[in-house]
Amino acid sequence: MVNWLILSSLFGVLRSIPTASAHYRFATLIAPNVTTKNAVRQPVSWNPMVDLASNNMRCNINAGVAKEVVELQAGTDLAFGLDNSIFHPGPGALYLGKVPESESAATWDGSGQNWFKIKNWGGYPSNWNWVFPDILNVWQVNGTIPLAVPSGEYLLRMEHIALNQGIGQKETQYYVSCAQVRIVGGGNGTPAPLVTIPGHFQPNDPGLQIDVFHPVLGTVYRVRFMVGCLALLGSLKTFRRSQGQMSGRDS
Ligand SMILES: *[C@@H]1O[C@H](CO)[C@@H](O)[C@H](O)[C@H]1NC(C)=O
Ligand SMILES: *[C@@H]1O[C@H](CO)[C@@H](O)[C@H](O)[C@H]1NC(C)=O
Ligand SMILES: [Cu+2]
């Protein structure tokens, strides 16, 4: 016999878990030669950020800079490991922020128009909801340092945008971490466009208004947060600039 009271209160508990406790953090940098938490500015909590205008959008609310700077060969594959699966639907992106001359990856706060996008995880509407390949329900997100990126120190920033709380900018959740890296063997590319964070997209951007649980098949959403895609000169394929598409997979 199903007791509806128990069932509904259990359902209530299950529903409340995601907002009450363990969300997910990008906690570990996984590089070919090293897997470490010590190069990641660890977010102090699992809670999402909701204020798109906050400087915390750069590298989350953390306890300070990280202890290590990890050396990465340009062209290398890397990943961020999570401490929980990404259980909310929404797009994601990987950025590099060039550390200014006067600073190091272990000191820079991420201010200035120094950020460019090197990977995007988009989505598309299916019959029942939006699908976000390679980013929903994973414990690890993978990327590559483009060969054309100039050598030097950078913050490597992962961002996941959870759209499950319904349509509307106030409900959107942001999950962000920065790893401190030094890229060696880099190329002569000119990363563009460069963006500031915050400022890389706006709360009323159409891409943030998507109802992920009520897809409109065939709809193509233009999203301004694709600003910051990488368009490096040189060997790299050119990523879509300024106005990316939410439908279909970018990489
Ligand atoms: C990683 O290790 C390989 C093999 O030992 C080496 O060739 C490469 O230079 C290392 N990469 C970095 C960035 O240290
Ligand atoms: C990330 O890379 C690892 C190692 O190659 C692979 O096992 C995993 O499936 C990849 N994850 C995704 C989401 O593509
Ligand atoms: Cu949640």
UniProtKB/TrEMBL annotation:
Q: What Pfam families does the entry give?
A: AA9
Domain of life according to the entry: Eukaryota
Name of this protein: lytic cellulose monooxygenase (C4-dehydrogenating)
Q: What is its EC number?
A: 1.14.99.56
MF-aspect GO terms: metal ion binding; monooxygenase activity
* Entry similarity comment: Belongs to the polysaccharide monooxygenase AA9 family.
Q: Which reaction does it catalyse?
A: [(1->4)-beta-D-glucosyl]n+m + reduced acceptor + O2 = 4-dehydro-beta-D-glucosyl-[(1->4)-beta-D-glucosyl]n-1 + [(1->4)-beta-D-glucosyl]m + acceptor + H2O
Signal peptide (residue range): 1-16
Q: Which UniProt keywords apply?
A: Carbohydrate metabolism, Cellulose degradation, Copper, Disulfide bond, Metal-binding, Monooxygenase, Oxidoreductase, Polysaccharide degradation, Secreted, Signal
Task: Name its cellular compartments.
Answer: Secreted
Q: Which cofactor does it need?
A: Cu(2+)
GO BP field: cellulose catabolic process
Q: What is any one of the record's Gene Ontology cellular component terms? A: extracellular region
**Location of the Auxiliary Activity family 9 catalytic domain:** 23-214
UniProt-listed PANTHER family? ENDO-BETA-1,4-GLUCANASE D (PTHR33353:SF10), PUTATIVE (AFU_ORTHOLOGUE AFUA_1G12560)-RELATED (PTHR33353)
Sorted alphabetically, which InterPro entries does this protein's record hold?
A: AA9, AA9_LPMO
